[in-house]
Each structure stands twice: as structure tokens, then as C-alpha cells.
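Predict both folds.
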Amino acid sequence: MERKKIGIGYEDYREFIDGNMYYVDKTLLIRDLLKTGEKVTLFTRPRRFGKTLALSMLRTFFEKELDRDGNVIDKLPYFQGKKIMDCGEDILSGMGKYPVIKLSLKSAKQPDFRSAFLMLRGQIIGEYKRHQYLMNSEKLNETEKIRFDNICKGDVKWDERMAGFSSEKEESRAFGLELVQYGDSLRILSELLEKHFGSKTIIFIDEYDVPLENAWHRGFYDEMVDFFRSLFESALKTNDALEFAVVTGCLRISRESIFTGLNHLDVNSILSSNFGEYFGFTPMETEEMLRAYGLGEKVDEVREWYDGYLFGEVEVYNPWSVIKYVREHESDPHRFAEPYWANTSSNDIVRELVVNADEKVREELNQLILGENIEKRIHEDITYGDIYESEDNLWSFLFFTGYLRKVSERREGRDIYLTMRIPNEEVAGIYSNHMVSWFDGVIKKADRKRLYGAIACHDTDGIADYVSGLLEQSISTFDSQEGFYHGFLTSLLYGFPAYRVQTNREEGIGRPDIVLYPNRPKDPAYLFEVKACKKFNQMEDGLNKALDQIRDRKYEEGVLNDGYAGCVSFGICFCRKSCIAGLFKDNDGK
């Protein structure tokens, strides 16, 4: 049986159907959305969890569309064989029944408010032009057509007016009028569509919080909030032409800032008890897709890397990562799993958490990376301006955007406390990589003169004190991982004056961990053998093993045979944030 194409990067439902691509059937979202009967529903889910495709599917089902000849487009072929077709006439009667307004706000990431607004305005104008047939509607009067045309051609008229402004005040006033006009534009369009079709309008708004997040980071958040409040109130609150609306985003923004007065708004977050299975892939859907592409034996690996999310009470996989995994492993099943979702964003929020962590937060990060749980109070209503105001808000943001998953919850009055953990290997790698990157920065900034002086003076206590002091700023995530400590010590030794660093170079009858070779042969080489242990009471034994290895494998003889005048060797043993050092003195290692 021929395998269907995997639609990487496709977000239009009809392209999946027309292109005979593999589609995980989420059409029962239509049924459940109609059954809830909410006027405005806000779905908040992490990025790349299928929000845009879901809106495209909803639009395909509900929208009454006309072809170039004015004939109604039949929507039935797009849903033949899909689950929604078994839901009865009361549901299917809504197919192709309503005019639809669709608006994606993800392109409004601009450096200033004016640029961002002009981008949003361009999106609105584009939607007006999609309904250009209204200019020929016999059901609209001339005044309504002129109003439609003014908005539809706003970009051209604005360019013309810009050239004629005689002062900054006049330009500012004209810009203010633009804000008012386009703040009311979705309501106007929905009224004109209702009048033309005789049916109320459905509005779909995708990624509503992308411009808000950008505005916060760029410093014009208040201006963007004011415009959004106008746009949303006009379209979603004071709009008699509205049948219902669906809005999507990653984060629920507080009602006070955006959704003022929208008392009929239903917010569906990852904590909500319904709609959990429609964003992300369920275990059954994931396993079916793996089997369809000959990867059934990879179920355990995919579960370890991309499962672990809990939306309501529904277990879901990261859909983007599963799709990418199947696409790349279909032709090469032996490839390693990769962090596909992690690589689609800068993951700045995790970096900020790591960089600004105090000792308490750093220990909590350590717990998470080791696979343990933490409990935190979670706020559903936050603004971008609040994220860094408190530790609770930061953990809340990480939870709602997919960097943590719920294990259990409890309530104290109005407060929600969640026990959380990292969902899977992919996300764990984000935390670990940022911890390593941050700790590398700590090492680079450290003044190493004291360490270099202790090495030159053969001061083992001085070496141990310096290295332990730096480790105290780290976390215990890498306990017993000798490779981490090896890399850590190597990083500290780079920059030792008049010496070069070599690791695992063959000397004697083995490979010492680290050797500092002098640029001048008359100076001694410095050799380091590293061990790690799990318990503090094992450190002396670990140190002795390092010194014994230097003797037994004749590391110093190998260095001296290279022609160097001398060799000073150290054994070092690590345990968590501590280390001890010993000097190799004679052939007995004592």
C-alpha cells in the first residue's frame, strides 16, 4: 500500500486532502465545538500543537464559499471518510452554511507599534479582498460598498496621504483615525457578510498573542493592548452579526488587559477537562502513524522523546516532533531521535529562568532535570508584563507553553497548586543545554589566576577550594557523570599561560584525562586524572584510584619520553559540587 505524503509545514486542511497527505483525524472538534454552544472560545496550547490546522479544518467545514463564477463550493469531498460524517444531520447541516472571517496575527512581529499595526492592517485588508465579491452584491447599498472599499484600499490611500502631511501632529492624528477604523473593521465585515448571505458570521483568529509577546519585548505593549481591546470588543462583544468565534494562542492573557467585558468568553487551556484530544496526537494516533510508515518498533523511543503532555485528562504527544520523526526515519529507521520541537524556537523563557535562578530555583531545576517533581502555584490569568514579576508567574508560563507537564493538582481556595515535571527527553534537553551553556558562561567569566597559581605551587587544597567554589554555582544534575567533570576541568585549564591543553592523548600505556604541555620544554608538564563518585564517603577511594592509575599506566614516563623536563601529576575526584585533589609523588603513588 502506497504511503501518503507527510505534510511538513502545511497548515491548510484542504492541502492535506487535495494532496492526499497523511492527516490525523481531528474533525470531531466540530461536533464538540457545536455541542458546547459557546459564543467565543479561546484555545490556549503550546506552539506547534496543531492550532492553525485545527482552525483551517473548522473554516473548511463551516464556510460558505463561492468560486469565481459565484457558485457555492461543495465541502462534502473534504470530509468524506472522516469521523465527523457519522455525527448526524444536526451537526452536518452546518457544513458550508456560514460566512467566515479568518485572521492570523502571527506576522505582526515588528520592531515598533506603527510597523506592527500596519502589518495587522495588511492582514485585515487581505481578508477584505478575499471577500471582494461584496462590491458586486445586490444586497449591499452604495454607502456600505464605499465603506468596504475604503478599508479594502486602505494601504494605497495611506501611502497617498503620507506624502501630503505637513506636520507630525497631522500625521499622528491621521494614524489615530486609522486605529479607530481598523479596530472596528472585523465587526463591519461580519455585518456586510451577514447581509449578503443571510447568515451570521463565524470569526477565526489565530495566534492572537504573538503580537502581544513581541510588543512586550519591544516596549510598546500598552499600545498594542489598546488596539487589541478595541478590535476584540468590536468583533466579539458588540457584534450582533456574530454566530460564534474561535481564538487561539499559546497563553491566556488576563481579561483585564485584552478581553475586557467579554463575559461570554470560554477559555480552554491545557487544564480544561474537554477538547484535550484535539491538539496533539493521542497514544493511539501516534502508534497508528508509526505503523503506517513501518516504524512500529519505534513506539518506545517516540514515547520517551515526545510523549508526556497531559491536556485535561488526555495524554498527548507533541505532534510536530512525531511528524518530523516519522518523516526523517521513514527512509532511515536507524537515525537517532532529535529535539525537533525544541529547535523551532529560541526557548528564551528557559534561558531566562536559568540565568536568573537563585540557589532555590537552581535546586528545583536540578530536581526537574533528574526526572523528579516540583509543586508550584499556577496562575491562568497573567500578562506578559507579569511573567518575570514573580517565580509563580514564570513557572506558570513554562507550564502553559509546554515546558512542564501536570502530574497532579490540588486547590486551596481559589489557588491552584500543580505537581509538575519535565514531559519528555526532548524538553529535558532544553533545560540541560541551557544549564550547560549558562555554566560555561560562569567558567568563562571566572578569574582563574588563583587556580593557575595553585597548580604551579602544587597546592592541592587550593585547587580543590577553587574548583569546588565554582561548582557551588552549578547544579547537581551531572552527579557521577565523569564526562561532565572532565569537560568542566578542561574548560578551566584553557588559558593557562604558556601552556596548551590536550585531552585523552596516549601517554605511557594509556590515555591520561588532561595534560598541560608547556611551550618551553624546560618547564614541567601538568597531568590530571579525573574520577567521579556518587557518595562523599567514596571520594578518598576515588582519589586513590586516580593516583594509582597514573602510576600503573606509567603516564609520567610517557610525558618524559616526549622530551619534557618534568611532569607534575594530580588526581582529582568529584562528587556533586565538591572535589578533592591529590599530588602524585613517587612510584608508590603516595
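Second protein follows, with its predicted C-alpha cells after the sequence.
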Amino acid sequence: MRHVSTVTIRKRIVTAFFIGLLLFLIIDIRLGYVQFVIGSELHEKANESWTRDILFEAERGLILDETGAVLAENVTAPSVVIVPRQVNNPEETAHYLADILDISEAKALEYVTKNASSASIHPEGRKITEEQELVIRTLDLPGVYLAKDSKRHYPHGDDLSHVLGFAGIDNQGLMGLELYYDEQLSGEAGSLSYFSDAKGRRMNTLADQYTPPKDGLNLKTTINFKVQSIIERELDLAIEKYNPDGALTIAINPKTGGVLGMSSRPNFNPESYQEVESSIYDRNLPIWSTFEPGSTFKIITLASALEEDIVDLENDHYHDTGSIEVGGAKLRCWKSGGHGHQTYLEVVQNSCNPGFVSLGQELGKGRLFSYIKKFGFGQKTGIDLQGEGNGILFDLDRVGPVELGTTAFGQGVSVTPIQQVMAVSAAINGGFLYEPHIANEWLDPQTGDVVDVIEPNMKERVISEQTSEKIRHALESVVAKGTGRPAYVEGYRVGGKTGTAQKVGADGRYMKNNYVLSFVGFAPADDPEIVVYTAIDNPKNTVQFGGVVAAPIVGRIIEDSLQALGVERRQDGIDKSYQWPDRPKVEVPNLVGLEKSELNEYMTALSIKTSGKGTYIIDQQPKPGVKVDEGDTIRLYLAEKNIENDE
């Protein structure tokens, strides 16, 4: 029998001890690693295997006008979520869902028997109607849930559609402001988490976990919806009257660059954008379209010449024979035979092409094109909408005498409407070129507190205040005495400029009897509060002149917008020069206090209607001093007692 020595036994015990200690240390270290290093990760994985999530979308932020009126909002539209393992009777559940959601029973059965923790019925079960929601809640089907959801609603229909844009079925911004500011408007989704066993059955012994969604911020814009409504009305009337290929209007606050209103035709309803061609909603014409500006561009030539002090509008003269020879080409005036001898102020009033060619020649291509670029042409304005165009300018190396001459009166260059209106704003606001913007403030959706303010961005000063003052005076005279007379508004000092531009066809040649007629106007002329640009593309059955078609539209928009903005009428400014068939306005006299028998002398110029019974006139509409068209109706209110003599 072999005997093991005490020493050997002791060695074996020590060896076993150290092996056991090593194993213990390895296990201890592993447990510590699992507990303290990857414990949270394992806990999250365990939670993921035990829990099921029902997502709750955040409320998309509202879009508001500058007064707080709602332009885009959300309406409740819950979505159907199926937890297949909780469905007791798949066939019956599929039958009900198929009937409610107007899908086949086979398709419904696929969802309720799907091998997944949850399933959304897409798209029929997304953002369902109130009637569908009521039926599902009444049936209370096991495994069928209604997740809180909403869809975008635009309460004003197709008004402002290209600016607002639209959101998709997942409330993601797809166009317009909805896309440009999607991140701020979207917010963060929340969820309801519940615990389930291995078979997916709900464990009622454990509490659900609810993570509330974080709603998106509300966007207050610079849009004034009263001004916007006026623009929409006038464009609708223009479409009905002229049946043009297109139409657009932009209204800007020249002191900040804030957009007061913007619209174009054709337009669309954002809630049913799928029903129109993508070319309609993809193209926001006021910022996307490019065309030769025509005579509205003469404002830039005028500003450049005045800033460089090469012309005195009152004392310098130009004789227009109807055309001017430039580089072997004859550039004609719109008026056959020309305007004859005129001051340069009359050149502006008459929109005389040869007169502006002479200013361009005096400036030279270097100076003229330098100012054109300073006014923002040839580059994007930076407006907070996607899809803006650049426009096209001549390469300076390719500008000869003819190109210089045509550019001076707005032919041969291509610009966007937003470039036009921002450049004119700079010309009449003291010389400050602003970046146009629509976003004004970001508001907390719960408290309404201002979270962030978008300050106006003044890019640069392009001309002096003295030059800007001369331009305002010259353009006010265009409306009072020149081609812009149809835009004249009694009681408001309006300045502006007409534009009649030929369109270039696919063959690169100018099209016949196909023009873009435009007018840009501003008011009050001494302290502008609004600049309005309107362009009508190829109007039918009318004289193709901007002063005939576009100027009256801008005049009405300015008049009604100034009233909406609270700007009072005044009786100063340049008096209108009337030409046939225009007729002067008649000032309403003060008839209050007169007897009814004394009205005969007023009946020749005005139509009078009376309300009430009595001998004396106690009130009248319109009020005294207001100027109206000859023959307009004045309503008088009668009483037996003369309130003028009533103590």
C-alpha cells in the first residue's frame, strides 16, 4: 500500500485552494463586470424582450400668421395598432376590421396573425375618421389598439398653399415651410410600454411605462392673413377675367424683408396635393420662375444713375425719336414715334426705353452690372423656402453695346420675382437690401412663450438715403402722371413701375403676342410700409401692357392692405393727372345739418339715397372729404330734429 506523505497532501490542498481561489476570482470579476459594466445594457435588452411599445406621435407645431391666426394645425386622427398575440379570435377580428377599414378580410387576417409584437395597418388604418374610431372603440376588440395620432389641417384651403407646403402621412414635412422647418415643427415621439410574457401576453402585474411625446414648436410667421386674403381674391379675379397661363403676387414689408403675403396660380389644396400634378405643387412661382423683367428693371438702372450722380431728373433732358442706334442695332421705344423732348423724370414716367439706354451708356457696363449684382440679381435671395432660382445675367465679358442697352431697360436678363421685389424694396427703403424671410418667432406650444426670434438680416446698403428719396419721388410721379396711373389710390401716396416683357420660346426666340405683364408698387411713398409685385403671364383678350392689366391689381391690393394694416388715408402727395377715359374723383361734401330740400345742387355729381324719416340730415356715408367716383351713391340718414342745433 502506497503512503502519501504529509507534504504531498499539503501541496495538493494548497494547489486546490489556489485553483478554487482563481475560479472564485474569475467568477467574481465576471459578476462584477456584468453588474457594473454591462449591467445597464443587459437590463435594457431584458426590458426590450419583455416590453412592447405603442408609439405616440408628437403634435406637430402650429403655423401662425403675425397676429396669431392659425394657418396650419392638427386634427385628431388615431391609427389602428394590432398586437397579434393578444387577439382571441383572429377570424372575427379580421372580419370587423375589414368592414370598418374597407379592406379585404384576407388582408386584415394577415395583420391580426402576423408574427410580430405589433402591426400597423398601412395605409388604411392610419389616421382614421371619427366614425371609424367610434366603431372600433365600441367593439373593444382584444389586441386592437387606437394609438393617438393626428393629421395636418389647413383651415384656409388652397390659400398660401405653396408657402405652407404640406406634411405626409407620418406628419413629416414634404414641401414649403413644413419641409424647411420640419425639425423644429416635428417634436419627439412618446410611447406606452407594457410588459409581456414569452408568448406576448400582457403581464397585468407590472405597471405600464408612459413616455409623453414632446410637441413641436409653434411657428409665428411674418404673413398677415388679411393681406394674404386680399392677394388671393385679386388673383382669383385675374384668373377669371384674363385666363392667363399663370399669375403671382408677393407683398413685402420693405423695412424688414418680412413676407406679408405670397401666392401664385395655379395653386392646390395641401390636404389633397396627390390629386394635382407634381409640377403644380413643386414650383413656387414667386421664388422659382425666371423671366425677363421688362420695365420694372428700369428702377435698378435709375437707382444706379442717381447714385453715380450722372443724371438730374428735373434739369437734364432727353429727346426720344422712337428708337436709338446701338452697336448697329435699333432699340425701339414702346411708343411709336417716341415721346419727343422730355426731362429724365418724364423719361421715367413714360417708361421710355431709349432714355434708359442712354442712362446705361452713361453708366457703362462695369458700373451698371456692379449695381445689378449689389441689388441681389444673379444669386439666391436666401428666403426660407426651398426651390429658389438664381436668375441669369450676362457674363460681363460678353456684354457689348447692344447687351448693355437692352439690360438697361430690362431685356436680355432673367430674374426671379422675389429678386425683383427685394431689389425694389432696397431702392425705396433708404438703400437697405434685406434677406426675405417668412419665419418670425418660435413659440413654446404649451405656454406660448417666445423661444427664439428671427431677426431681420440686412445684407448691405446699396444706395444712399438721398438717392432712395429721389427714386420714391420719381416712382410716385409714375403712378400719378405716367404709365402707372391705373395703380393710383385716392388718399394713399403710391409709387410704382410697370413692366411688359416678351417671353422667350423653346427655340430661343421671342414669342409673338405672349408677354409677362407686371407691376411693382409701394406705399405710402414717403414712408413705405408695403411693396407689392404682381405678374400676369400671357393674359387673354386684353391689351398686353403691364399698366393696363397688372397695375390696377396692385393698386387694389395696396389700398385694401393699407386699410387692413391700419394705415390712415391722407390728402397730400402728387395729384393724379387724368387722361381719357379716366375721370377725376369727386370729394364728398359735408351734408350733415342740411335740410333735405337743399340737396338738389349735389344731385348732379353724386347719387343720393336716404334712410329714415324727417327733414334734417344727421349722418352720412361716406364721411365728408372722402373722394369717390362721379355718380357713386351717398347714403344720408334723416331725422325730424337737427342735431347740429341741439343743445
